[in-house]
Amino acid sequence: MEKNREQQELDLLSLIRETFNFLYNILKRIAGFCGYLLRVSFRYYYLFLVFILAAVAYSYYKTQGPFRIYDSRFTLSINDGDNNLYSEMIASLNRYLLDGDPGGFASILQIPQVEGGKVCNIGNRFITETQDSSALRIVVAVIMNNPDVFPTIEKALIDYFKNNDYLKSLNSARVAALKERKKLLKKELAEIDSLQKIEYFQKTNEVEVNLDKKLILKTNKQMFYSDKLSILEEKEAIAKELAARSEIVSLISDFPPSTKPFVTMRDVIKGNIAIAFLLALFLSLFLDNRKQIIDYIRQK
After folding, report:
1. Is the distance from CB of 150 to CB of 144 less than 8 angstroms?
2. What letter would DSSP give residue 118?
3. Backbone angles phi, psi at 132, to 5 degrees
4. Which residues are bridge partners to 216 per DSSP?
């Protein structure tokens, strides 16, 4: 038993030692390879300098002039129509931009082609108001390379929705129904006022005493109060609807592009320098081992 236990302990120690030696050899090889890369980097330092300078120059070039892009957005209240329809309309517009057809984009929005050519991309997302699940807001994002065209694009996009024949017919029917309902409420309110006047002059307040000796006040003049209050509330809601949402869409807020580009040189230079460093490293390794590589290819 003692011998078996000692043998097991020796086997465990031997396994630990072998595992440690294995990990040590791996780390040693990694450290040696890193040292080799460092030596190669110093040997061909001029390659790294050239590639990094090229990356800086390229980053500067890609963030100047027509490559400078600006992000802007505005929020619309959707007063009528299905949100999927708005998404499809924006996607149809954006398809012209993705296909490199600024002329078609400008033609649909009825704006000059020069201004349409400044737009790079259009996107959207929807916001559902928590108070009213049927009330939708659409946030339209516009990416362009000239911030001066934002007012023109914003107005053109709003008109693009408002001039849609299908949405115009839906909105006309909605507004007509609201106005008709407003007339009916006015008529119902007048009838209630007439009934209240008749009730006021025909009846008086009555007082009863029940078995528990509690007074009960019966006021017939107040019998239409709840109906009148609900009519007034609905009338006020319709007035707000007609005042604020009489058109297909309503502009809630807009955020014109700032003078700072959406993508700056600092945003792109890091990635470009990393790519330049890797390219310089691969080229340095090739040059350092070119003889072995050429000999290997000739053997094939």
Report:
1. yes
2. T
3. -140, 105
4. 208
Q: Which two tokens stand for residue 198?
A: 């008749």
Does the predicted TM-score (pTM) go above 0.85?
no
The secondary element (H helix, E strand) that includes residue 43 is helix 2-43
pLDDT tens digits, one per residue of 107-150? 999 999 888 888 989 988 887 654 554 458 889 999 998 888 99
- 3-state secondary structure at position 251: strand
Residue 100 in contact with residue 120, Cβ under 8 Å? no
C-alpha angle with apex 111: 109 to 113, nearest 5 degrees?
110
Give residue for tokens 């008529």. Answer: 187
Match 């001039």 to its residue by tokens: 163
What is each CA distance from 263 to 62, 64, 69, 100, 271, in whole angstroms? 10, 10, 7, 21, 13
State the CATH architecture for 67-164+251-255. 2-Layer Sandwich (3.30)
Domain range summary for the chain, segments of one domain joined by +: 1-43, 45-63+274-300, 67-164+251-255, 175-245
Are 140 and 124 in contact by the 8 Å Cβ rule? The answer is: yes
Query: pLDDT tens digits for 53-101?
Result: 999 999 888 888 778 888 898 999 888 877 888 889 999 999 999 898 9
